[in-house]
Structure formats: C-alpha cells, structure tokens
UniProtKB/TrEMBL annotation:
GO terms for molecular function: kinase activity. The chain crosses the membrane at residues 30-51, 63-82, 89-108, 120-153. This is histidine kinase. It comes from Duganella zoogloeoides. Residues 202-422 form the Histidine kinase domain. Its EC number is 2.7.13.3. It catalyses: ATP + protein L-histidine = ADP + protein N-phospho-L-histidine. PANTHER family: HYBRID SIGNAL TRANSDUCTION HISTIDINE KINASE C, TWO-COMPONENT HISTIDINE KINASE. It comes from the Bacteria. The keyword Signal does not apply. Pfam families: HATPase_c (PF02518), HisKA (PF00512).
C-alpha cells in the first residue's frame, strides 16, 4: 500500500513541476508572481479573517482593511492585461499595502502578539522574494504608514514597547539573508553565462578542425578538376558545382562559429563605452560579416542611411548587437515564409536612432514583455535566450535604449536610441 502511494505522489509532483516549468516559459516571471500572490491573497484574506475572528479570536481585527486587501489581490488576477508601467505601479501599491502596512498595523494593534509576530515575519519573507528595489520601497512606505496610522489611532505606547522593538533585529536580519540569497542567484546566473561561453568556445574549436580539413580537401579536388586546357567535360561540371557549394557551406559555418563566439565572449567583457563609433560603418561591417545562406537572402536586407551619426560605445559590441538583431530578423522571415529587412540609420532624429525593421512573423503581444529577459526564447527552444538580453545590457551600459514595436504576422521594429553625439556628414 505504501509503495503505490509513493509512486502516485512522485507522478503528481512531476506533473506539477512540468506544469510550472511550462507556465513560466510562457509568462513573465513578474506576472507569474503577481498571479500567485493574487490567487493566494483573495483566498487567504477572508479565510484568516474567519480564523482570527471566530476560531482563535485576536485582540484586534478589521474587516474593512481586509476588504481593501481582497480588492487589490483580485485586481492582480488580471495581471496578463497590465502594461509594464501599470504592473510596476500595481506591485508597489499592493506590496506596500499588504505586507508592510497591513501586517505591521495588525501586529502593532494586537500589541505584538505571537500570532502577528510570526505573520509579519512571513509577510516580510514573501515581500523580499520580489525585486529588491521594489521590496525596499514597499517596506519603507508600508511600515511608515502603519506606524503613523497606529499613532493617529492613539495607541502610541506600543510603538516603543520591548515586544515590538525586539522584533526589529529579527526582521532586518531576515531581510539581509534574503538579499544575500538573491545576490547568490545572480552569481549563479553569471556562472551559467560564463559556462555557456566556455562550452561554445570548446565546440567551436572541435568544429573548426574538421571544417579546415574539409575546406583543404575541397580546394585540392577543385584544382584537380580544373587541370587541363579547354572547357570542362560535362561529367565534371556537376562535380565542380557540388564542390563549390561545399566550400560555401564551410565558409558559412566558420562565419556562424565566429558569430556565436563573439556573443559568448561579450558576456564576460566590460561593457562600458571606450570609443566613438560610426553607426553607418558598423552597420556596413555587419552586412559584410554576416554569413548569408545565399545571394537571395542577402538581397532581402536593405540599408537606408538618412543621416549618419556617432555614439559612445565599442565597435565589437556594436557588431554583437546588430548581428543578433539581423539573425533574429532573418529567422522571423524564414518562419513566416515572407518578408524583408530594412535597416535605417537616422541621425537626424532627436535622439539619434537606428531602426531595425522586418516584415516577417512578428511577435505575439503576450510575448512582448519577455523578449529581453535572459534565457527566454520564442518559440521555445529556439536558441539559448541570451541574445536580446545581452543587447539590452550593452545598450544600458552606454546610456542608450532598445525597445520593440511589433504586430503578430506583420512586422517587428527594434528601435535603438543613443545619447546625442556630434553628427557625421553623410
């Protein structure tokens, strides 16, 4: 009997984990946390009112304050429809109200009872699982408002009581531990990126050896086929064409390896601007460097220079950004089976900008908030998910911005805007 129960539990646990992984793959992590908070809050707020009011009565309870919390949590159930700005505002207001304000106010009004001491500590743990900057703001705002509200009610003696003050070191220690845990997760993410770069370097080294051998043998066979005067025999023409195609594919693979290595090494280098870069020159370098599959694919890309401009950055990192954008655009065209790419250098705009436009498959609206997140890729398993995240990190380091405007099945426009620099003549 025990064995079947264990097997059933393992199957259930595996099913739940797979569902959560798939769900996190489709949604922004912030959206997932808001939805979980909203679901738990809309149930827990009324449930614990009943528990603390009827089953284990506390000294103080407030239905109006809980109703406000229920409303805020219920609004969070529609988090998928929030814009980024609306989501940030909602998080700050809701977190400030529920965890620091409500839990602190109830803790103080119940004169630091054991139930509310533990509840407040749990609330702070949940709070600091969100973004640290938002959590700190919410903690300071909510706690200050709660203390002010208690003082206005008139119960000021509890604020300086030993029961209350002895909780502060525990709370601050908990916050410090949670902050340290987040730093550890960031370090792990960086190690993952470094490991990815090292792995790509190893794979590149292993691939280049056979590719070099293939290229040398093809060159030898081409010399053998071209020996002798006069036109080639009919049976050799097809062989020469096949060998030329192999040679092209070898060059293409070598270029792709260069592209992957460039992106991988960029993760580990300093991103700060160290030189002045001409946008027209860097775009031309990318178009020359990109390993197009054939001439037809190359003709799909058009460059329009309205007015050149310079910016503070790094030439190699600029190439990384544009190579990633070009590769994504050509993949979108390939998936859609139609479209073109247009690159517009617009130094006359204030601020100077580069437009990267493709009329391929576009990006679904629900995926738009996720595309710059590290390790996120769309469609799933379509790459490592570091390209656009790296592009945004580089642009942030240069005090520049990158954003995307898209319509599914129609177009995607990446807008790169740079701080004003001295313009160059066209």
């Amino acid at each position: 009997m025990k064995q079947p129960l264990q097997e059933s539990f393992k199957r259930w646990k595996t099913s739940v984990l797979q569902s959560l992984l798939q769900y996190h793959g489709r949604e922004d992590h912030a959206t997932v946390r808001i939805l979980l908070l909203a679901c738990i809050g809309t149930v827990a707020m009324p449930l614990y009112y009943v528990i603390w009011q009827h089953f284990f009565p506390q000294e103080y309870e407030s239905l109006p304050l809980r109703l406000v919390g229920i409303v805020l949590c219920a609004i969070g159930l529609f988090a998928r429809q929030f814009s980024r700005r609306m989501m940030d505002l909602y998080l700050l207001v809701t977190l400030s109200y529920i965890f620091p304000f409500f839990f602190t106010f109830m803790f103080l009004m119940n004169h630091a009872s054991g139930v509310w001491s533990e509840s407040l500590l749990i609330g702070l743990i949940v709070l600091f699982h969100f973004d640290t900057s938002v959590a700190v703001k919410a903690y300071l705002i909510g706690t200050a408002v709660a203390v002010t509200a208690v003082a206005m009610v008139g119960d000021t003696d509890v604020l300086g009581s030993r029961l209350v003050l002895q909780q502060l070191p525990i709370h601050w220690f908990t916050i410090a531990v949670l902050a340290a845990a987040k730093i550890s997760r960031e370090v792990l993410a960086q190690e993952k990126l470094a490991g990815l770069g090292a792995g790509l370097a190893t794979v590149a080294h292993e691939l280049r050896t056979p590719l070099t051998s293939v290229d040398a043998n093809v060159r030898g066979l081409l010399r053998m086929c071209s020996e002798g005067a006069g036109p080639l025999p009919a049976d050799r023409v097809g062989t020469v064409d096949a060998l030329a195609r192999i040679q092209f594919e070898v060059r293409h693979m070598n270029h792709m390896i260069d592209l992957f290595l460039l992106s991988a090494t960029a993760v580990r280098r300093s991103l700060r601007p160290i030189e002045t870069v001409s946008m027209e020159a860097v775009v031309a370098a990318v178009l020359k460097r990109y390993p197009f599959v054939n001439a037809g694919q190359q003709k799909l890309v058009a460059l329009e220079v309205r007015r050149n401009f310079s910016f503070a950055g790094q030439s190699e990192l600029s190439v990384v950004i544009l190579l990633n954008l070009l590769r994504n655009a050509l993949k979108a065209i390939q998936r859609a089976g139609k479209g073109r790419v247009r690159i517009v250098v617009d130094g006359g705009h204030a601020p100077p900008r580069l437009l990267f436009i493709d009329t391929g498959c576009g990006i679904p609206a629900q995926q738009m908030p996720l595309i710059f997140h590290r390790f996120y890729s769309f469609p799933p398993h379509n790459g490592a998910g570091i390209g656009l995240a790296l592009c945004q990190e580089i642009m942030d380091a240069w005090s520049a911005t990158i954003e995307c405007v898209s319509r599914e099945s129609a177009y995607a426009i990446f807008i790169l805007e740079f701080p004003q620099q001295a313009s160059l003549a066209k």
